[in-house]
Every structure is written in C-alpha cells, then in structure tokens.
Amino acid sequence: MSNKKIIITGGAGFIGSHVVRRFVNQYPNYDIINLDALTYAGNLANLKDVEDKPNYSFVKADIRDAVLIDEIFATHKPDAVIHLAAESHVDRSIEDPLAFVQTNVIGTVNLLNAARKHWKGEYDKHRFYHVSTDEVYGALGKEGFFTEKTAYDPHSPYSASKASSDHFVRAYHDTYGIDTVVSNCSNNYGANHFPEKLIPLSINNIQNNKPIPIYGKGENVRDWLWVEDHARAIDVIFHNAKTGETFNIGGHNEWTNIDLIKLLCKIMDKKLDREAGTSEKLITYVQDRAGHDLRYAIDPTKLQNELGWKPSLQFEEGLEKTVDWYLSNQEWLNNVTSGAYQKYYENQYQNR
Ligand code: NAD
Ligand code: DAU
C-alpha cells in the first residue's frame, strides 16, 4: 500500500476513534491526521493507545470555519479525507436544528470546497469519503430493507442535515469530478459510545439504579452493528470502491428497543451479581420522541457481494463485550457524564 496522508474528521468521537485506531494500526505507512473540534462528544481519551504512534497526529479545528479548513488543506496537503465529524444525536437535533445545519451541511461543504480548490487538476489522485447514516432513507414499516437505491426521505432535523450533506458530496462528484464515496450505516454500538445514546445511557443508568427511559412503547426497531465492524467496512470501502459509489453498511441485526433493553438488563444482572430481574424493574416508559422513525433495516448485499465484507460478531457477544468495556472504564464514563473532561480541556488549551 503506497504512502498516504489522510485527514479523518470527527476522529475523537465514537465511530471516528475506532476508524482512526484501525487506520493507524493497519497502515503504519499512512499519516493519519485526526481533525476534530472536540465538542461535548469528542474525547481524546478515546485514542490514548495510539496518541504516541509516529503516524498519528491531532489538529483541533472546527469544520464550520471555512478559512481554517482551507489553511489546514494548504499546510497538510492531504491525499484523502474520511469525513465523520457531525452533530450525531437525533434528540439534540429536535432541540436545536440549526446547529446540525451548521456542522453537518455547511461544515461538509467547507471540506468539499477545500478539496475542490486544493486537489484541482488531480481529482483522480484524491478521495473524499463521506460517512453517513441509514436515517436518510426515512422509516420502514414491518417489511422491507433500505438498499442503495431507496429514495431519501429524512424525518428528523438530524437526518435531514445528513441527507443534505450526502447530496452535496454527490453533487461535487457530478459537477467538479471530485472522487467521492458515500456509505450509509445502521446504528452502531460498542466502546466509547457517548452516554446520551440508548445503549450506553441504559448501561450507565442500570449501574446507578436509575430509570431506563424507553420512548413510547419501545416497539421501534433499530439494526445494530458493532462499531469495529463499521470501521472495517469503511477501510474496505475506502480502498476498493469505485469513484462516485455508495454502499449501505449493516448486518441484519434488528431489535425492538424493548427487547434489546431486556437483553441488556439480563447481561447487567449477571455482570453486577444482581438477582435476575432486578434491572428490568428500572424500565420506565416515557413520552415518545417527536417524529420517531418506526424501523430501520439495511440490505448489505452490495457490500457483501462486491467487496466481501461481513459482520464479525453476534449481537449477544458484542453487547456483553460492550458492557464489560463500560464496567471496566468507570473513569471514562464518570468524566464524560460529569463534564470533567470538558473542564480539563478548557484549562489545558485556554492559553494556547
Ligand atoms: P459522535 O457524536 O460520537 O462524534 C462526533 C465527532 O465529531 C466528535 O468527536 C465531535 O467533537 C466532532 N465534531 C462535531 N462537530 C464538529 C465540528 N463542527 N468540527 C469538527 N469536529 C466536530 O458521532 P458518531 O456516533 O461517532 O458518528 C460519527 C459519524 O458517523 C457521523 O457523521 C454520523 O452521522 C455517522 N453515523 C453514526 C452512526 C451511529 O450509530 N452513531 C451510524 C451511522 C452513521
Ligand atoms: O441509524 C443510525 C443512527 O443511529 C445514527 O445516524 C445516529 O447518529 C445515532 O445516534 C443513532 O440514532 P438513533 O436515534 O437510532 O439512536 P439512539 O441511541 O438515540 O436511539 C435508539 C432508539 O432508542 C431510538 O428508537 C430511540 C430510542 N431511545 C433512545 C434514547 C436516547 C429510547 O427509547 N430512550 C432513550 O433514552
């Protein structure tokens, strides 16, 4: 594999940190630059194990800042971008849609403009890989799957902003000839998942004997994929997809929220040495999410047939591994839930 300099945006976040780790370890001859603004969701502690590697570096930058992004392209001259930085939480998007437009839409266009300017004349030698979500396809009923040909039909401000960014990426391919690739993945789970999302929030609450909030009747279905399988899919797609292509990523692993939480409760009772049934008593039905999509389910046939990717873990095994990670990383959990990490970062960087 020839040398490459790759900017990975959002590398301090949940999925981004797994992608950074994979690329740093798999490709010692690549320079991996983690570009991240370190919002509440970004945490450099996610990358402690790779921070001293010679092929890893960190640049603190906000993709909403077009001038700064342009300067970073001029200074670092990246061969490729793998773009994960985003506001990622649906509930926050319902409270503050504009923040999602600013980062997910305008931030993506700022990166595309820098690529368009700095890669001009040699678009075939560079790649812009945009990481997106299955939520752009909208909601399914009880039957059917999202394929790469499913029409976009986003319902939340989050998914509308991701859909818009996907369209811009494809427009820059069609209009200017930039080499772009898009992947749309289902719900991820695993280590380093910020505890605002269902699985880590529930693990944290069960541990602390707090109610587990289930929206509506808990009948909504999500299609869960282990985060390291997503990172491996991104690796395979980045290296093998033809220009302009789209791949759906998922592993046929659908769960209603309530069944998932009941399984999680069983695992937690076992791990915490609690009597069977203790954690389930914490389940509390609360008001539904506005515009709550009923079901997501990915058809990953294209990725499996064309690029040979398959998920590696069964859900029960992956969920147990995830619980083990949270139980043995209390400090990480305490820091992100108490806000101590944010305070640390302000102290550390306020005079730089
Ligand atoms: P996350 O919220 O855990 O991390 C987002 C990262 O982006 C953080 O490190 C944050 O600091 C950074 N960031 C946010 N705004 C920024 C800005 N303006 N400039 C620079 N950096 C900024 O998100 P995640 O769950 O890891 O998701 C990563 C990507 O994958 C997103 O694009 C998301 O839409 C997509 N995705 C997520 C899932 C999922 O299940 N979590 C599934 C499919 C696709
Ligand atoms: O499908 C991919 C998407 O998955 C990603 O694009 C998003 O970035 C990611 O956040 C995730 O979105 P969801 O909205 O599906 O994830 P979340 O963990 O917020 O919710 C999962 C399901 O659980 C959903 O049906 C809402 C429900 N839920 C969530 C929370 C936080 C609850 O019932 N209670 C809760 O407290």
Question: Can you lay out the helices and strands and say which pair or pack?
Answer:
Blueprint: E1 4-9, H1 14-26, E2 30-36, E3 56-60, H2 66-76, E4 80-83, H3 90-95, H4 97-118, E5 127-133, H5 157-176, E6 180-185, E7 187-189, H6 198-207, E8 212-215, E9 221-226, H7 227-240, E10 246-249, E11 254-256, H8 257-271, E12 283-286, H9 301-307, H10 315-327, H11 330-338, H12 340-349
Parallel strand pairs: 1-2, 1-4, 2-3, 4-5, 5-6, 6-10, 7-9, 8-12
Antiparallel strand pairs: 9-11
The structure holds nicotinamide-adenine-dinucleotide (NAD) and 2'deoxy-thymidine-5'-diphospho-alpha-D-glucose (DAU).
CATH topology of the domain at 5-190 and 224-252 and 291-314: Rossmann fold
Instruction: Please identify, by name, the CATH architecture of the domain at 5-190 and 224-252 and 291-314.
Output: 3-Layer(aba) Sandwich
The total count of helices amounts to 12
| Mean pLDDT score | 95
Task: Please estimate the helix content.
Answer: 40-55%
Q: How many β-strands, per DSSP?
A: 12
N-to-C span: 37 Å
User: What is the class of the domain at 5-190 and 224-252 and 291-314 in the CATH system?
Assistant: Alpha Beta
Ligands (ions, cofactors included): nicotinamide-adenine-dinucleotide, 2'deoxy-thymidine-5'-diphospho-alpha-D-glucose
H/E series: EHEEHEHHEHEEHEEHEEHEHHHH
Shape assignment: globular
